[in-house]
Amino acid sequence: MSALASATMPRVLLTSFEPFGGHGLNSSLEVGRALAERPPCRAELIWQVLPVVAWDCVERAWEQVERLSPDVVVALGQAAGASAVRLEGLAINVNHFTIPDNAGNLLLHQPIVHDGPCAYRSTLPLQRIEAGLRAGHVPVEQSYHAGTYVCNHLFYGLLHRAARQARAHRTGFIHLPLLPGQVGSGETVPSCKLSVLVEGVRRALEACVEA
Description:
Helix content is 34%, strand content 21%. By secondary structure, the protein is α/β, with parallel strands linked by helices. Strands 1, 2, 3, 4, 5, 6 and 7 form a 7-stranded mixed β-sheet that branches.
């Protein structure tokens, strides 16, 4: 990419999580890797892999925000049980983990930020993203909020810091189903092909930069 192109194209920070919860893979990691290798043509894409660790994931992602000043920040996560790409509408101020994070933290009934608001709304153009995915025949749904585990912790942390610093970039979170290789023989957990998830996230990023 030329210096002129990178200066005029929207800059997107895309984050994925490392494997967790006994899985050897993480669908968000595999999708992020595929997009980093072949990014959307209308954006300068920077990809970062984050630890599934409370606070640490926010710190590492925010370091990139401060260093790069992106126009769009899209965080990806994995949601076992999801049958479609989930566009998360809210980040809520709650840590309530059903399993420990990858550092052993088991946070229960705690706020993420003690003096923070109850919730933040995604600042991505969710209706436009959903329309783009449906046009590409990618299964998609809008979700009320991102849960209470590390995915929501990251989502809330990024939105809180953006609000406190009056940052103009858009921020959102997308949950992805498991990949077929993550589902054992005889299990009835839904999954989705990597190529479909990559196409879905690509379309989501394109909708963000077009908006």
